[in-house]
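=== Structure Prediction Worksheet ===
Name of assembly: unnamed complex
Input type: mixed (protein and possibly other molecules)
Chain count: two
Listed entries:
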Amino acid sequence: MKFKTAMTLFALLFVMALSLAPAAADGHCPQEGGTFTIGVDTFLPMDPNTAAHDWTFYAITNINSMLFRIESGQPVGDLAESWDISEDGTVYTWHIRPGMMWHDGNEIFPEGESREVTAHDVVYSIYRQYDDESSIMAADLRNLFVSAEATDDYTVVLTLSGPDAIMYDKARGLTFTAIVAKEAIEHYGDDYGLNPLGSGPFEFVSYSPDEEVVLRANEDYYIDPCLDEVIFRVMPDVPAAMIALEAGDIDWWGAVTPGDDVGRFLDNEDMTVINFGCPVATRLYMSVDKAPFDDVRFRKALSHMKDGNAINAALRGPTHVKGAGTAGPGVAGYVEGLYDEYHSYDPELAMSLLDELGIVDSDGDGWREMDGELLEIPMFAWNSDPAPDYVAAIVDAGAQVGLKIRSEIADPGTNNARRIDGEWGIYLGQGWCGEGGTNALWGRNGWISTLGYEDEEIFNLLDMSAQNLDEESREAQLQAATTRVAALYFEPAFGFFNIFTVKNNYVKDFFGGEWTLNLVTDDHNVWINEDER
Amino acid sequence: MKKYILRRVILMIPLVIGITTVTFALIHLIPGDPVELMMSNTRQMTQQEIDRIRDKLGLNDPLPVQYVRYVTNLLKGDMGISVRSRSAVSYEISQRMPDTIILTVTSIVLVLVFALPLGILSALKRGTWIDTAAMTFALFGVSIPAFWFGIMLMLIFGLHLDWLPTVGQGKTPIEFARSLVLPSVTLSLILLGLVTRMARSSMLEVLSLDYVRTAHAKGMGARRVNFRHALPNALIPVLTVISGQFASLLGGAVVIEKIFGWPGIGRLAVDAIFARDYLVVTNTVLVFSIMVILVNLANDILYSYIDPRIRLQ
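=== Predicted Assembly ===
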């Protein structure tokens, strides 16, 4: 009897333990159903050709299948079960997962009349991005693209003119090439983004601009989603969004969480703070082709006159990461110790460099002059927090060494226009995440080329690394580019900030640390514990 | 009356043309590039990629060419394409217009229901604690910034009491009504204080006029004097204030729409200005202008019904 009781208890405990375990890959859900509400600050129509917006891709990557998705920074199969790369890195052979069906029960495919997603759909989707000159297909992939061909229903051969090392980058390459159905594109035309149709784990239900997007579970997906419904709720006001998150009106804040709130949520046992693992740099750019910025000593003086690390720590709170360079810790090309080597706080050195340049206070009014005239430098920044505070800190640091810096805060459009026109001054800037970001910023025709940032050696290093599939030598090339940027430009750095998002703990088995949102994968199947909500 | 309305409607045409031309020119004069802005904070694009997209979208054409194309398309009923969302501008506006109207009208109804009686009561009970309380409330309404008040309401009724949703719109009529409470109360705050004070002073002014004294002297009941004779005359300046504030409410709705995640045309316009989405800006201003003109027209018509001495010519 005792044995039977013990066995019964054991069996019961076993069942209970199973029910508490995370979702298994076979689609088992500890608790089926429920709505997962995601807060985002803005949302655009869901056409992968035009949706130049990360949060919009959260929905796209759940509606449409991609060839691959990114998990823990690595590409894993999605629509493509597997793929091979030729030795020279120019030919990708993608093996498409059989049995993937387009969503049905809609205008394109009525209930039960869907068809299988084939290699021809993949080829169509790639060419749709390539042929549309206004699409957001990355230039480096476009430049390397030779052809995409379906050799049979389940095999796609992508040929490039050279290897592409950033094919899987967070924001470049094929990461955002969603596979679309030709029938849907032809039917909806320019309105496809308002009526997206895919083969992913969730089907599109409705889109209300500036309000919400509703998706429902696709029961025909090769893994059964635990959730019934996913809602993307647009919340442009971040403080209000934080209240909504705590009130449980949204379950995950999918956009960047401000430093102050991160600190608060880290102490909240009902919440989990998720790190995207791709720190973003805050730094200064200058008109390096114009005096006095064209002299490295002046740039060096600007770098050493401020305590960037302290400023960044104060303004970014717990999201602050000490460091400098074109890429942050954890990203290819990061060089440790760069900050101390090039950007340490040394106002004495800054003053002596300015003196050496002849930028001195000759009339005794406390401000330095250049060629006999007061040197008053405008500092440009955008008008949202914490940018104006960085400017105030630089104005103050300048005053400490006798350099008059004038704050010029404007809306992002005006600020960008000044940069494009190459207006003389200092610019507050933020880096971009990932290697693709490094290339887009510092590479040929890069984002800051209008300010005179043109260095053939940096361009070559970045070009070479973008086509170098050998991880070790590529890392060395990226680090060399990063170091040269620091040494050549003395790009005054403040440090990095981590991108954090926050979820309520009743959201289970959630893998939210990527730019592509993976709610249902071989390893993860998000579910909501309604008892804890 | 019909002739008057027709003339006002015809007069709208040059006004609207002028507004669209000025808006189109002004928004293009502001520095900034829509494609650049679209890309700069999200996907990582080089200048070369941005230039290619600009060219494709016709943004490199001379301004007069872009304007002629805009007007020609507008006359055909096509408001153009939003650079930011790549959707039809008419779709963008039509999706948000009902939400803005619901929010604004609900707020005006709240004002009429609460502020108007309060102001009148305050005038009738001048010098009493009711008057003091009403004026304190009015002062609160005028002084408190709407964005702060909205956040406080969210914290109290959404987070701590959990009575009302903090964001979004409910799907069922009851859920929708619940989600409308906080934004409409916050928006009405802008007008509540103003209308309460206006109704009080207007009523006090009318109550001191000779004809009211005469009515009292004739032995007419206080209720009849106050509500039959004084009130209609006191209402005219109040109505003027409300209609005049309609545009302000639409503008004020931007902040409220943003805080409560309420999709509205005001938010669309502001986002479009920041994104330099030229056609969305020009067309939302066009729609705003038409709405304000029509509200003013309706107000003029209403005057003639409230006070038959006013004849529309």
